[in-house]
Design a protein that fits this description.
Blueprint (H helix, E strand, L loop, with lengths): L7 H11 L3 H10 L4 H10 L15 E8 L5 E9 L2 H4 L2 H17 L11 H17 L4 H19 L5 E2 L2 E5 H12 L4 E9 L4
């Protein structure tokens, strides 16, 4: 390949993008004829790039915490993610994870986000709401709006991030996480949880 001049600025940019070492970045840029995307691809194929380093501030580190209620009847496993291992080991992060697990045990959400609510559960709630509205004798032209309002309320009550936080109902769990995210300087997200209750299906 005709000699291509690789500037230190190009090497730094590729390094920031991929997390690979300086010499690996320089060689990849030479091989790619200074094409940044092609060089990234070369590093990824060689397994040198740290998989799309922090693309869009993705939270891929974190903790799995467990919470068992004092009556031994309810237990929760929860995965809370952060961007770095450094934050995942922080006591404030661990405490947040435990607080959210306790909330899950108390408030029994069905999913993390509104999108997580199962379609069949939404359908069932819609049917119930439609029957209630019809039984109340509401005018036909406003029934759909009332049903939508009831569904929206149901989703907010049953999804973790929308629920008022059990220890401070002035804020939602989502706001609690945003607050912690601001203090710790990283994206924080609940990836998933599982709630177990004696006798529940």
């Amino acid at each position: 390949m005709a000699s291509v001049t690789i500037s230190p600025k190009d090497v730094s940019e590729l390094r920031a993008r991929t997390g690979a070492g300086m010499m690996d970045c320089k060689r990849a840029l030479e091989e790619a004829g200074c094409d940044m995307d092609k060089a990234s691809e070369i590093l990824r194929k060689k397994g040198i790039a740290k998989a799309e380093k922090r693309s869009g501030r993705v939270a891929t580190q974190g903790l799995v915490v467990s919470y068992i209620h004092h009556n031994q009847q309810v237990g929760v496993l929860l995965e809370l993610n952060s961007e770095t291992d450094f934050v995942a080991r922080n006591e404030a992060f661990s405490q947040l994870a435990r607080d959210i697990a306790l909330h899950v045990a108390s408030a029994d959400p069905v999913g993390v986000n509104p999108e997580d609510v199962p379609a069949e559960l939404l359908e069932r709630e819609r049917r119930i709401a439609e029957e209630q509205v019809a039984a109340e004798g509401k005018p036909e032209h406003i029934r759909a709006k009332i049903v939508d309002g009831k569904l929206k309320k149901f989703v907010a009550e049953r999804t973790l991030l929308e629920q008022p936080y059990v220890r401070n109902d002035k804020i939602t769990v989502g706001e609690l996480i945003k607050e912690a995210s601001g203090k710790l300087g990283e994206a924080i997200s609940v990836r998933r949880f599982a709630r177990f209750q004696i006798g529940a299906v």
